[in-house]
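User: Sequence recovery, please. Input:
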C-alpha cells in the first residue's frame, strides 16, 4: 500500500476540524440558555451554604433539583454531539494505519483545546467540559463534570 500523501491528509484533517468545531459550537449554542440558568443557581447555592428556615430548605432542594435537570440536559446534548462527531470521524478519518499517527497528533490536543475555549461552556462553579478523541477507534467523547 502506498504512503499517504501528507498534503492530502492535512487537507482532510482541516476539513474534519472544521466540521467538528461546527458541532461543538452548535452544542454551546444549544446549551447557552441553560448555562446562564445554571450559573445563577450555582451562585445561589454558594451564597446559602446552610439553609436555616423551612423556606430556605425548600428553595435549596428546588435549586438542587433544577441543577440535576440541567445536568441531564447537558449529558443528553453532549452524548448526541459526541455521536455526530464520531460519525464525522468515520467519514473523514483514514483506514490506512500509516496515516493514523498524523491524524491523532493533529486532532488530539486541538479537540481538548476547543472544548476548553468554547465560550458557551463557561458555566463556572466547578462545571467543566471534558473531551477525548480517538482517531484509531473513530470515536469522540464530550462530557461535563459538575462539582459544587
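Assistant: Recovered sequence (148 residues):
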Amino acid at each position: 500500500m502506498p504512503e499517504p500523501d501528507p498534503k492530502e491528509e492535512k487537507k482532510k484533517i482541516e476539513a474534519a476540524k472544521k466540521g467538528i468545531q461546527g458541532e461543538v459550537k452548535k452544542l454551546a449554542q444549544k446549551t447557552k440558555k441553560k448555562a446562564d440558568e445554571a450559573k445563577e443557581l450555582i451562585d445561589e447555592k454558594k451564597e446559602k451554604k446552610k439553609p436555616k428556615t423551612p423556606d430556605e430548605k425548600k428553595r435549596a432542594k428546588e435549586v438542587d433539583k433544577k441543577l440535576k435537570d440541567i445536568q441531564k440536559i447537558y449529558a443528553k446534548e453532549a452524548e448526541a454531539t459526541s455521536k455526530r462527531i464520531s460519525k464525522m470521524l468515520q467519514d473523514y478519518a483514514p483506514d490506512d494505519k500509516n496515516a493514523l499517527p498524523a491524524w491523532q497528533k493533529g486532532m488530539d490536543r486541538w479537540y481538548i483545546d476547543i472544548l476548553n475555549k468554547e465560550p458557551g461552556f463557561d458555566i463556572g462553579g466547578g462545571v467543566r467540559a471534558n473531551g477525548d478523541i480517538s482517531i484509531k477507534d473513530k470515536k469522540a467523547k464530550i462530557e461535563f463534570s459538575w462539582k459544587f
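The chain is about 65% helix and 10% strand.
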